[in-house]
Amino acid sequence: MKRKFLAMALAACMTLAFTACGGSTGSGDDAASSDADTAQEAESTEETGDADSDVAYIQDKGTLVVGITDFEPMDYKDDSGNWIGFDADMAGKVAEDLGVAVEFVEIDWDNKILELENKSIDCVWNGMTLTNEVKSAMECTNAYCNNAQVVVLPSADADNYPDIDSMKELSFAVEAGSAGEAAAEENALDYTSLTQQSDTLMEVAAGTSDASIIDLLMAGAMIGDGTSYPELTHTLELTTEEYGIGCRKGSDLASYINDELKKFYDDGSMAEIAEQYGVQEALVEQ
What we know:
This protein is α/β, with parallel strands linked by helices. It contains 10 helices and 11 strands. It folds into 2 domains: 131 residues, Periplasmic binding protein-like II (D-Maltodextrin-Binding Protein, domain 2, 3-Layer(aba) Sandwich), CATH 3.40.190.10; 96 residues, 3-Layer(aba) Sandwich (D-Maltodextrin-Binding Protein, domain 2), CATH 3.40.190.
């Protein structure tokens, strides 16, 4: 009986030892795996920051990258090669409040949505018309300027084309992906799409195209007496529209910029910059 009891006790001890050893190994593996997962998650969070905040992303990298085209009076270069204009100066003020530098990148206007999604740029701030396509593909700010799409012709020809029907025979130059291109399509006009609005004016001045369709604000700055195209004029307004700033879909940057625009409107600095570039009459109250 004593021997049987000792044998049973020995077996129990061996079982306990085996179980403890096995349990210890399993718990250690689980703990190590858990620690590794936690470390990986922490590393991922550290690399990306707050994945839901574009504002935090921009502040972390230290630059606000603005997608633009050469579009006077909104975004264009001065004699020193620096980007200036109403939109450029306003973007600079927002970047300053964010505590980051502003960087301007010229983009193909037709690819502006793709540039945003690829994070090549953080926003499109370039006299962008708030079309249905733009509003569905981007997180847009409130409107900040009124605008229109106008027909540009040589001054000598303007009286010959008093309405849209008389213009059906003309060849037009428009910017690809722009509201001007949409207006040409809507009115069944014959047109060629170019990279920038400024290119369309060169086409008309050279006689390669009979007319162009561009933004009224650009027309006011770039054609007529005292400009680079004194022989051109604008006639019909084909559309009326509003400008807004486009950010990535779901981005909190749009809301941040809205707050900034209201602040600058209320303190008068927005109007001061607008007057500098001759767009004060187009401002929309914030």
